[in-house]
Amino acid sequence: MVSHPGVFSPTAPTLTDEKNSYASLPYSQEKELDPRYAEAPEFAHANHAPQLAFDQDSSTHKVAVNGEYRDSEYPETVYARYASPPYGQVPGYEMRRPELGGQEQENGQPRVKRKKKWIILAIVLLVLLGAGLGAGLGIGLRSKDSSTNAGSSGQTGSSSQADPNSNSNSSSNSTTAQASTAVLERTGIAMTARGDGAGTLLYYQAPNGSLIENFFETSALQDLDSSNLTWRATTQSTIPTPGIISQTPLTAASYTFSGETFRHLFYTNSQGQILETRATSSSSSWSSPTPVLNETYFGPVLISGSSPGLQACHSPSLPTLFLFYANQKGFFDLLSRPHSNPSNWSSEQIFPLADKFAGGACDVTVSTNDTATTSTISVFYGNFSSDSIVHWAQQRTRDPDGAPSWTRVPEEVVATNPLSTMASYGDMALATGTEGEKTLFYGGTAEEVRQVGYGAGEPTGASGVASWEPGRIVRGSKMAAGIVGNQVLLVYQSAAEALSVGRPNRNGALMGNGTLTIIT
């Protein structure tokens, strides 16, 4: 059906005196300035000091020191230690006042005692500093735990309810200095509007691997006008997900059917199976996960390795739930099942030329005229040979039986634009507006976000390609997109353990971009 396009701190030297071994003694053992020690050098012993004339005026003891005190003016020769001029009379000459007992003083305190005081003070300061650091670290860890509100494993569920009487705006303003919400590096991310239209659901893995669901009322989400972004979750809970692997791709869908609001969440286990857990109302518990489908006539339904290629979408008019995934065999497969029979999955179509390690995306738009309601199913994925994207579409009025064939949509703008290249292992995300306009995101070869725009109406190729700056993503990370309050939002990872949210316009210019903090 389709042709294959080809594929310092230096150490001070020790001072030594070869004639006087005392020279290298520690300070507490030095005796050269204390005349009481007989073993001190003779020139320092009192019995050997020169017996010369001595001026008895204690206030005019003299010693020739510099040019102002000449020998001709002061003939007496005296021992400088005990006959120095009064302190302050000799410019530039500083000396320590001697004290009996062999210890010199400075500023009225013995040196040894002074040193001891400083040592004790330093120890006290170190103890205080250590206590402060310990307290700070403990507070930080508690803050991080509370931000995730996650359990110790993915096997138990818990939830928290936000205070409905709190002021959302003042809470957001007071939390701009909080740490960002911690997530698992390269976590899967899923975002979808809740089926009853009350708000947005966001899913990701916490650092311990547990799976977190947040529900945000639309009015609680603030605009992305600063680098700090705080969303107040109305509820936050941990979903039981036995068998879940770290960094699994995630996708979710929600819709109303027979008066109930359904939620579906898909993830993978270590065997590559796609597991589904669902809740049959907006507040009910989650079902035990089961494999979506074990095998089709194409072979086992197994996702390809660490591929992010897993995307759910649904049609309210058919009504049908679709699951689009990258199969281990090297193609993308579209599964479907009617809302009325949750276990009746089947394979509808396989798509060739696929990069099975990259992401995929799908959506369903509905148009109505005088005679019929038409659902247009669109799928996107990476081309394994050209690093570009492949786009297919099908229009149907009721069910697959007798539906027209799938049509490959030419992507001439994407194919000829150097900004359009898609990274292997890069994820995809699709946001669809109420009129059917589409914004497709994927990871580029330079770890940047690429954005492609599509108009409403009949399936056509992209109208333009943009590259976000800033907008770097963690290599191999996942992303999710959606429409919140008529704004296109992309949730992605630009840091290893945090989520970022970008709000672009249709031309790819970022109107807001920040690190996500979730509070409850």
UniProtKB/TrEMBL annotation:
Residues 146-180 have a biased composition (Low complexity). Keywords: Membrane, Transmembrane, Transmembrane helix. The chain crosses the membrane at residues 118-141. The keyword Iron does not apply. Residues 1-26, 91-111, 144-180 are annotated as: Disordered. This is Fucose-specific lectin. The lineage of its organism: Eukaryota, Fungi, Dikarya, Ascomycota, Pezizomycotina.
